[in-house]
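Moderator note: this is an archived Q&A kept for reference. The question asked for a predicted structure of one protein chain; the sequence and the answer are reproduced below.
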Amino acid sequence: MRVVLISSGVLPCPTIGYGGLEQIVADLAIVLDRMGHEVWVVAPDESTIGEHGNIQLIGCGPCDNNAHAWEETAFQKYRPMMESEEFKDAIWHTHDWRKWAYRAKFDLPHVHVMGTLHGMLCYEKPPPFQHPNLNGISRNHADGLSAGLGVPVRCVYNGIDLDKYKYGSKKGRTDRLLFLARITSFKGAHVFPDLCKQLKAKGDLVGDDTIVESQELVERVIMQCNDYPDCRYWGGVSRERTIEFFQSCKAYVLPLTPGWLEPFGLTIVEAGACGAPVVATDSGSMPELIEDGVNGYVAKNLTHMKEILENGCLDSISSQDCRKMAKRFSREKMCEGYIKLYEEILETGGW
């Protein structure tokens, strides 16, 4: 099978630091290649995915924070490939934001295009074709997309490289709580320092503070940590460093704010793979990733989250069970799920 994966232009594939979508594309490409499939990846020039196995990189210019502009430029480069005889039976699996690959289907209806959405619904209408072939990254996410667009949406969970996220036993853990996500309001970055202060707990606040919606929020969060020094602000760190945080924290805390529906939550799985219990507010996919009392708790609200953290509820959770739950979301299982969808598209046109 020949598969072309289309990444975003914001970060290289795989990411140098910490990233989500681009790392998912890289992990999927690596496993597909190991299974013997022909894999091409559309990504920024700085990407090193072409150094893995037999994967071919289609470099489409340098990284650009203006994702939409990069995607349009990239489309102009790979569009001629879509009509070539060599790629006649290829699967074009787009992970970018604007899903430019679908535009080729107006002139080339035979082209096999599939789109995975990585965020909340941002389209008014689905691609205007018999088989839109859209995919969500959790069941809650897929159901919401389907309801909003009025078309079937499949679900393949994201997956991680479990070998990279080494297990950390409970004995080696500190008493520090961890927040690790982009410094945005919907992830609750501004809530975490205040939560630590109320609990009189020590905490570490980690996350990218460059590709964000508001630098004012970043500055406010830094000030909150300065006012309560037991909550340390780290900003963006490498993926290797995030693993060290997951391995040593008492618990990973994600106070997602009302109105935000978390599509998946890669950090939930990463924390679990390292043996860390998770406490997150009920949002989107959280009940699909967290089983109460097994690998953490889904809090009804911030008051409930505070009760969980101060009442010793996490003491009975084993690091082994956290790791066991994370194994449900390996990159190999992700790849198996996508291959089934690729086969459905090739056999029937899709859904």
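Archived answer notes: The chain has two domains: 2-159+330-348, 170-328.
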